[in-house]
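Memo to structure team: turn this sequence into structure tokens by end of day. - J.P.
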Amino acid sequence: MTEVIILHENDEWLPPFRQAFGAAGLTFSEWHLREGQVDLAAVPPDAIFYSRMSASAHTRGHAEAPALCQAVLNWLESHGRTTLNGSRALYFETSKVAQYTALTAAGIATPATIATVGAQALVAAAQQLDQWPVIVKPNRGGKGLGVQKFDTLDGLKAFAADAAAMADSVDGIWLLQEYFETTDGTITRAEFIGGKLHYAVRVATGGSFELCPAEACDIDETPRFLVTRDVPADLVRGFEAFLAMNAIAVAGIEFARLDDGRLLTYDINTNTNYNPTAEQAAGVTPGPARLAAHLMELLAADSTAAAAA
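Reply from structure team:
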């Protein structure tokens, strides 16, 4: 095994990885999964596969890409191929319900959340939660898209009555979630590579829910992303155990510190991007370079195992 194959649907996010993989001497190719086929009787190439499939694929006209990628990953895994962020990771990428239920089962605190389908169910969930403001978010989003805050029941009812707005959830599931204030207007995103913490960034939200760190995400010039070491050790251990339990190699996990002392984890990004400005300012190894090194380690381990067989 000498090659890495990247599975993806968005060319705009690939340049930092192409550059880092090339600089590391990796032999790699790409499968763009906007459309295609999977011959289930065929044998896949003997390679390491790295999935960068995104929950926001539908915003680029690639709504079917995650399902195609899931089929590809199922096929690869049935043949025992090594996959970074395989079918389980993609399941989390495309379902916040899957994220929250798994996080809760692992003992990691998440915001109070009710999953709903239909306008009446969404309004009823708000009445059941009975605390304002509330957050409404699509089950499958990506980049914070579709997340909205409502201060009153009337405002939520108006949203629920808008069929076009409700149709923005790809799978029809809307989450009704408690709104929380952070201690200083920031959230923290912990970046894991190879299932281990690489670094974390403190992100100034500025009241926005769209916090994609990639240069291609049209963020403003304000230094919103700052590398930090201030992540509780027990939380890191919990995150690393969670990732190992769910076979997730690469992820950005977002959590918030609340005024009441709670730490709430509210998002897992398995198609993670990195902010080069923050990395350079902190003098840390860039995420794509660390990922390239991890892939080199896996290739070396496979070669050693093959030679010993």
